[in-house]
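User: Before I run my own analysis I want an independent prediction to cross-check against. Here's the chain; please return only the structure tokens and, at the end, one sentence I can use as a sanity check.
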Amino acid sequence: MHAREIVKLLQGLECRVNLIRFHTIPDVDLPGSDEKRMEALRDYLTKHGVFTTIRASRGQDIFAACGLLSTAVKGKKVKENSL
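Assistant: Structure tokens:
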């Protein structure tokens, strides 16, 4: 489990982990995480001594959240260059 590896990696360090939701990107075969999974990861890390917060997601409604806007712009340039 990746969460266990994060705990091992950060053991003894004073730090904060900010979880940022990965939003599904059109034409990219990578799933996003739902709220339950994000909370479960946060709770596991916190329980094991890693201070963890879930960052609020903003901009998804205008396709600008966490890389979505840059991905859309790159896709548009690729399409324009192939014409």
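Sanity check: Strands lie at 16-19, 51-54.
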